[in-house]
Amino acid sequence: MGENQRGLSANSAGSAGSVKAENERGAASPKTAGSEQEWIELLPYGVTVSLDRSRPIMLFKSEDGEEVLPVWLSPLEVGIALTQNQRLTSNVSPHDVTAMVLQNQGLKLERCDFVEVRGHHQFVDLHFSGSPGLTHLRVRADQAVSLCLHQKVRFYSLAEVIQDSRVQHLETFQLMGDDVGGDEPPYFQ
Length: 189
Fold this sequence. Notes:
Blueprint: E1 18-19, E2 39-49, E3 56-61, E4 68-72, H1 75-84, H2 96-104, E5 108-118, E6 121-129, E7 136-140, H3 145-150, E8 154-158, H4 159-180
Parallel strand pairs: 5-8
Antiparallel strand pairs: 1-2, 2-3, 2-8, 3-4, 5-6, 6-7
């Protein structure tokens, strides 16, 4: 795996941390316009399923494991994410063509910032280099995670977005909690 990507499994963790102005490679880290809010680098940690087993949840964790960001994905999106991170499978990905188009146009996907929770959806800003016409693109997280993993980008979030995502996730968990018991998912404990 590349230097910007760590393995994805049920219980793997790598190295991440909080950043303000620069990351360890000297590249610009995400900032909030006019703000000194601290961005937390997150690593893909693993996948679990919702209590009703209808949707998979990708977990991102900070290096110290203190911050956990649950991201609800479609079964297709999580299947792609898991498959392309297993060394025993073919290196073919549905994102290969997208990667070729980006490369052909001189574009590089640099990072993925979790920036907003709206309703039951999380949104990310994808940051690109190589073109003044496309510097960032806001999309739903469940539509972009596997592409970002394929492109080996770094993931960041503000603590506020992690908290909003956890609240959203816990509200959903509690709605289903009457059927399964418990107050919160075990991976938040």
